[in-house]
From TrEMBL:
One of its GO terms (molecular function) is oxidoreductase activity. Belongs to the asaB hydroxylase/desaturase family. The lineage of its organism: Eukaryota, Fungi, Dikarya, Ascomycota, Pezizomycotina. PANTHER family: BLL6449 PROTEIN, OXIDOREDUCTASE AN1597. This is WGS project CABT00000000 data, contig 2.29.
């Protein structure tokens, strides 16, 4: 299938976000919580705006050479799940276990894989997510969210905080204690559509790490009730190279690097991504439904 021409949503390149400018601000977004102090219908929840740019998005199935995790930040992997037929707590736990097994195959050097986050999304308007204040995790993994806004990924500063937060105490003692042998920490995103026989509506697009410059990345605070996280929002650049997966099925998983402490010379440290409109989609196709996970992969640094 040829390259599609579509629009991608980027953060608006606002002068107020330039460090050192008069009245400089850091971009932020307050996560609305049901019953919380911020009402997204009446209160200001962000100082960001978005803009769309026309972009050519290449089909990964036709890419030569095929993208790699180490260089480009993403791959497509065949993987059949036995836990997607139902949406209940038991199925979610099984899906996390499946994800950990998949990532142990993708990363043969992995000593530990911890899948801490599960999101199910549907391309329609939904209510705000629930947040549990004592653990900073989404309280209800059964909650179905809408697509995330704007091309984005984790930041180099947020990665260590995520590792600290989601490793078990025993793992932190083994892998993070002072004087311990060095380990490599990767944060990995997996994304799978649920649409049968294949996805048409709003596929995921991902940006080749080798085409992203430091100036394209704008740190943004995500403000939860009990802590502040940080992500990169992506500015548009004509140099960026974007990919998608045509007719992606539920038996195919996109694996993306979100953070890597030892990426090697020029290796991928992140993979900006966002959903896009598919101009080739049947107007009657079902709304995109998908599952994504976030995991920590711990490996021993090679001598």
């Amino acid at each position: 299938m040829p390259t599609i021409t579509t629009t991608i949503e980027f953060i608006k390149d606002d002068p107020k976000f330039i460090v050192g400018s008069k009245g400089c601000e850091k971009p932020y977004y307050i996560i609305p919580v049901e019953g919380g102090a911020v009402n997204p219908l009446t209160d200001k929840v962000t100082n960001m705006a978005y803009e769309r740019h026309v972009v050519g998005v290449r089909d990964i199935r036709e890419a030569q050479p095929a993208p790699t995790l180490e260089r480009n930040g993403f791959i497509l992997s065949a993987h059949k799940s036995m836990a997607i037929a139902s949406h209940d707590s038991e199925s979610i736990d099984r899906y996390k276990q499946e994800t950990q097994e998949l990532l142990r195959k993708v990363f043969p050097d992995a000593e530990e894989v911890v899948t801490w986050d599960f999101r199910r999304r549907l391309n329609k308007k939904t209510t705000p997510s629930q947040v549990r204040l004592d653990t900073f995790r989404f309280e209800d993994e059964l909650h179905i969210e809408g697509p995330a806004k704007g091309a984005h990924d984790a930041t180099l500063d947020s990665g260590p905080a995520i590792v600290q937060r989601h490793l078990t105490p025993e793992m932190r003692l083994k892998y993070l204690k002072e004087g311990a042998e060095e380990y490599r920490f990767r944060i990995v995103n997996t994304w799978r559509p649920l649409n049968q026989p294949a996805l048409q509506d709003n596929p995921l697009a991902f940006c080749d790490y080798t085409s992203v410059s430091h100036g394209d990345l704008l740190p943004c605070d995500r403000v939860y009730p009990h802590f502040v996280g940080e992500i990169f929002m992506l500015r548009h650049s004509p140099a960026q190279e974007w990919y998608w997966v045509s007719h992606q099925t539920p038996d195919e998983v996109t694996v993306m690097i979100m953070y890597d402490t030892k990426p090697g010379d020029g290796g991928a440290r992140l993979c900006p991504h966002v959903s896009v409109q598919n101009p080739l989609a049947d107007p009657e196709s079902s709304p995109r439904e998908s599952i994504e996970t976030r995991s920590i992969v711990v490996s021993r640094v090679k001598a």
